[in-house]
Amino acid sequence: MRPVADGEKLFLWREVLILMDQSLLEPEPNSDQLLSYHSPVAEKSHCDTDTGRKSVTCDVCGKAFKGKSKMKEHHRTHTGEKPFACETCGKVFSQSCKLKVHMRTHTGEKPYLCNTCGKRFSDVSAFKKHTATHTGEKLYTCTTCGKSFSQSGSLKVHMRTHTGEKPYLCNTCGKRYSRISGLRNHMSIHTGEKPYVCNTCGKRFSDTSVLKRHAAIHKGEKPYSCETCGNGFSRKDNLLLHMRIHTGDKPYICNTCGKRFSDLPAFKSHTAIHTGEKPYSCPTCGKSFSYSKTLKVHMSSHTGERPYLCNTCGKRFSVPTQLKRHIRTHKVEKLYSCETCGKNFRQNHSLTVHMRTHTGEKPYLCNTCGKRFSHSAAFKRHKATHADEKLCSCNICGNTFSQSSSLNDHIRIHTANSDP
């Protein structure tokens, strides 16, 4: 350990004086002093809870503190008082040290230097988290499951998975979260805020994790490979979902008809057939949908947005599934083959529908008359007959029909009568 220089001694002594008497006004240490002392005691000792003998107790929660000034700072967490305001942006803080750290976002100051890689940080907590990545040291262990962590804060958050504690409350809808990051991401649902922008395509996101997953699409990164067939994926959850093709695992079961599904979106799509629930409404035309993604696709019919581009022919599409289907038209091979009759299909969905001709499966049930259907299109046409929907009109006599095929049959009556 290197000897402490005179300038550093002066810096540390000033911090001791500040802790002894909050009213003392000492000049700020310069960046050179902070950078030369890479384990920043000043910020830690000023902001962290004191250790050792504690003589002052909070009258609200009973927590003990070493001095009145520390207890006073803590008491603001109960009262909500934030007397320290940023002169640049107006943001307020309960502690002066937090304001001091915040000011660095405006000044760009990063006084904490990592000796290993040279990276700089504006606050001590981020600095400590970073240094732990070099040392790999994990001092804090969970007494319940034995998992270890490099920071006490990470252990505290982890413990909530065992206790079920969710201290972060959304004041708008009452939903609770175990992490503050979860609450922040949730709040964007109410505010509509999407502060994270993709530098490649300009698409905006409400949280960084979704942006990172999206960015991988542009980079073409597929770090997760299937050990069975070698297919690559940009996300681990997509790989796990893909693996069910090989394992045959279908963990989602419909309580109404007993049908099982390998992925959650397909399961939700299926259950909507039984419930008929459509909670998502288009603000432009009022049409309702069972799923938010279906509404999103529908909205493109109003906006005309087609963000998905085919690199082969330049054709654009409003949804990625349409683009995927289109791309297959450029390929000669037919990927999906029926094991019963050998017929080939370009799309897995087409094969699934075709298989019903062999199995006799009719998953679409009419709740009015009990009739079943193997295709959703036929099911929808049938339902219209009960609803007495007259969608197609004859331009000769004005008669209306629920199906275009019925209208075509009707028109032949007029054309037959007009023949000489």
Automatic annotation (TrEMBL):
The keyword Metal-binding is assigned to this record: yes
Keywords, sorted A to Z: DNA-binding, Metal-binding, Nucleus, Repeat, Transcription, Transcription regulation, Zinc, Zinc-finger
Any Gene Ontology biological process: positive regulation of transcription by RNA polymerase II
Family note: Belongs to the krueppel C2H2-type zinc-finger protein family.
Taxonomic lineage from the root: Eukaryota, Metazoa, Chordata, Craniata, Vertebrata
Main location: nucleus
One Pfam family from the record: zf-C2H2
Keyword Nucleus: yes
UniProt name for this protein: C2H2-type domain-containing protein
